[in-house]
Fold this sequence. Notes:
This is Hyaluronan mediated motility receptor-like protein. The protein is an all-alpha fold.
Amino acid sequence: MTSRPIVLVFLLLVLIITSQFEWKQQIEAEGNPAVSRKKQLISEKEETVKEKIILSQEKSIQQLNELVQSLQLQLLHCRGTNSTIVSSQNATNDEISEVEDHDSVRD
């Protein structure tokens, strides 16, 4: 039973402390407009830098996507070339087998 009032007092203290910090920040911002303007400019510069970084990353991602597409096309081309070589090798092997069979029949 005594824990409930203790918890309420603790929450009240936390509320008071946090609200004083917020009030103090607001008073400082209102009291010194040069500082608040400077903070705003710094914040705007940070946002600009972040946007530039994001645009740079998007450009890099686009270049990587184009590279992946190019490599996929090259892979498809190589697979097609490889299957053509394999099928021509199989045809050559079949022809050799037929010639060998024909020679063995002659013997």
